[in-house]
Design goal:
about 220 residues, 2 domains, alpha+beta, Elongation Factor Tu (Ef-tu), domain 3, elongated
Length: about 220
């Protein structure tokens, strides 16, 4: 679906029930809203808030086994730079070496506050013999932990951010850069789901009860 078609579909949805008082949303406002709601939509899919099979709907955003660059080596962990389009961890394999022996370790990504608990647990801490280790996401990097072995590489599978869209015809916030046409890189059904969230956002902001109920029902229907 082109970004122009997405914009037209959005306008139809927000004005369908209120033709006597047309809501006007500019292309610039829509672009900002669509890019913001695309991340909200993705978060719902990843966290299962959009239905039990929602993770299957975003396989087009899954990047598999990307080899990351080793950014920094510390005493207890190695840091690898995350790709710029990284949004959510899926899985990872760490390449490890000990005394000339090499292995692939399964990586369990944990919350930072859980790190000390895992490292002190003999059943869960990094183990070359058990072929597993842990990682945490910190800023623009992923920290992979080690014990009596070294981490020499990391292959990461992750969900990337959707492409940032744009529509020609206005100037960006710097007042100089002209907008261009950049289409969504998602399936039509997923673009429609993001449009539904944009329409719901407008209904909330304009306090349009009838439109709000209709847009909310559209989103609830997606989950079935």
């Amino acid at each position: 679906m082109s970004i122009q078609e997405a914009y037209k579909r959005f306008l139809l949805k927000i004005n369908k029930n209120d033709t006597d008082n047309e809501i006007r949303i500019s292309t610039a406002e829509f672009v900002y809203m669509f890019n913001e709601m695309s991340l909200v939509w993705l978060g719902e899919k990843i966290n299962g808030k959009a239905g039990t099979d929602s993770i299957n709907d975003i396989q087009e955003l899954l990047v598999e086994e990307l080899e990351l660059s080793n950014f920094n080596e510390a005493k207890g962990h190695n840091d690898f730079l995350l790709p710029e389009d990284f949004q959510h961890f899926s899985s990872a394999i760490a390449l490890a070496e000990r005394n000339g022996c090499e292995k692939e370790l399964e990586v369990y990504n944990i919350k930072p506050k859980e790190k000390n608990t895992w490292l002190k647990d003999d059943m869960n801490n990094p183990s070359f013999d058990w072929e597993e280790t842990i990682s945490i996401i910190s800023g623009d990097r992923i920290q992979v932990y080690k014990s009596d072995f070294d981490v020499t590489g990391l292959n990461l599978s992750y969900y990337r951010k959707p492409r940032v869209v744009d529509i020609e015809g206005y100037k960006h916030i710097d007042g100089k850069t002209l907008s261009t046409n950049i289409d969504p890189d998602l399936s039509n059904s997923n673009v429609n789901e993001i449009i539904n969230r944009c329409a719901l956002e407008v209904a909330v902001n304009y306090k349009n009860g009838e439109t709000f109920q209709l847009d909310q029902q559209r989103i609830l229907t997606e989950k079935k």
